[in-house]
Amino acid sequence: MIPKVIADARKIVIKLGSNTLALPDGTMNRAFMNEFADQCADLAKAGKQVVLVSSGAQVAGVSTIDRWARKKDIHYRQALCAIGQVELMQNWREAFAARDLHIGQLLLTREDFKDDQRTLNMRNTIFTLVDEGVVPIINENDSVSYEEIRIGDNDNLSALTAILWSADLLILFSDIDGVYDKNPKEHSDAALIPEVKDITELRAGITIGAANSFGTGGIGTKLEAAEKVTAYGIPMLLANGSAPRCLETLATGKSGGTVFLARE
Ligand code: ADP
After folding, report:
1. 213 pLDDT above the threshold of 70
2. Can you tell me the mean pLDDT for 13-32?
3. What are the structural domains of the chain?
4. Which residue of 175, 179, 216 sits with most ligand 1 atoms within 8 Å of its CB, as the best mutation to test the pocket?
5. Mutation pick for ligand 1 pocket among 32, 176, 216 (CB with most ligand atoms within 8 Å)
6. What is the distance between the alpha carbons of residues 66 and 172, in angstroms, rounded to a whole number?
7. Which of 4, 71, 120, 184 has the greatest number of beta carbons closer than 10 A?
8. pTM here?
9. According to the model, what pLDDT value does residue 144 have?
10. Sheet containing strand 103-108, strands side by side
11. How much is the average pLDDT of 229-249?
């Protein structure tokens, strides 16, 4: 099922979580970023278009400045995002440049999706970048966002992006293989759910546990993202980003995940 869903999609939004982009010590996982850019280049050669939604600015900020790790103050958290966003994009730029691909950055807030003119501008920018072979990399503008205007997590941001760009598929890479009936980090007997047709039914049947160290959304926001995109006819995949060549193995069926089927 998953290889077919990927094969059928031309326009793909891919979201990478903080846990996937950072090593356990909080530094950027450059080897992963290089390998990922390589797989995106292969997709482009196969005629597919990719938009990335990349988390990891705050983690990158802490490891870059090597201070403020424990500061809870919002100004420090936002300052860390300002520092880390540069580090994050520098790493992505190097990774994609090695494959002769340019990248473009869009930093968005909830307000941007509410305003018609801004939405139109964002949409046009994404279309222009992609049409010209440039890979857009999107993140929430955490240095200006505050509670009331935040999307709050990149799962929902990637869903809004997929809808905005009229994508054919949304893929979320996390540090788990998919949705389980209970948190696999806490229960060794948790069972993976390979296919979801009805998200309301799924919610009623599973236990949603706590998120991980660097993660913000947890599985709850991934289900919200699935609800959003499937309502627009866009399927969603949730898979493990820590597996070697995660995108390729998913496309060839060598690894699995959870597929959320689009509503008819
Ligand atoms: P990311 O940074 O990739 O977005 P998060 O840490 O925010 O990831 O969310 C994924 C985490 O959600 C998993 O590592 C897992 O521990 C937790 N989780 C809680 N309940 C479940 C469940 N029912 N199925 C899968 N994962 C779950």
Report:
1. no
2. 93
3. 2-260 (3.40.1160.10)
4. 175
5. 176
6. 29
7. 184
8. 0.96
9. 87
10. 103-108, 135-140, 49-54, 11-16, 169-174, 236-240, 257-260, 195-196
11. 96
